[in-house]
Amino acid sequence: MKIRRAGLHERAAARMRAMIIKGELEPGAETQETELSRALGVSRTPLREAMKLLAAEGLIELRRNRSPRVAALDFDAVFETFEALAGIERLAAELAAQRASARVIARLGSLQTKMEEFHAAGRLDDYFAINGEIHGLIVQAARNMPLREAHATLLARAERARYLALGAERRWSASVGEHRAILAAIEARDSARAGALLGAHVLRTGTALREVLASAEAARSAA
Q1: If phi over 0 gives left and psi between -120 and 50 gives alpha, with beta otherwise, what is residue 63?
Q2: Is the pLDDT of residue 193 over 80?
Q3: For residue 205, what are the CA distances in angstroms to 12, 103, 162?
Q4: Are 58 and 154 in contact (CB under 8 A)?
Q5: What would the mean pLDDT of 158-167 be, rounded to a whole number?
Q6: Separation between Cα atoms, residue 151 and residue 137, nearest integer Å
Q7: Beta-bridge partner residues of 70
Q8: What three-state secondary structure class fits 80?
């Protein structure tokens, strides 16, 4: 996938971020500068700038006199991020239930329908994209800029873990039903219920990650 020259390092960072989130670049793996430059169609300078952006998000570990590597997933650190994210999204849902326009609520309904279709078809990547759009739209509907800024910062740190957790079929299926209940609460303008449901939903994703990582560790030990 070649990258257009406009905003080169940001576009390289976006592509690398997607590769890390989806496990194409595995946790702990050293980045091969030459190979990445060739794959992304960029020179080493914008690639290094992209690495700095991803390091700020906790996705890349920069090391003195050594190649950068994909940051390992530290469950305790990630779960703390989910705790903070749950608090922010809980407040966002409470405000969205009060402030969202009829048009935004209709859009949430349309996205929910698409998300359920992707789940039924087993299309995880498409489901993940729509899922993120729903969360983002709820935060946007809260109409609180500091809240949106804090959410964007934390979400960048949690995306890889969210994708990994959804890879567990049990969590994926549960997530669909939880989203349906959250939408119903927002549609009913039930602020307290919408907030409680979304906050719990985010925390459950963090807990599901523990199960995924434990299963992966068991598999490695058995190999």
Answers
A1: beta
A2: yes
A3: 28, 28, 7
A4: no
A5: 82
A6: 12
A7: 60
A8: helix
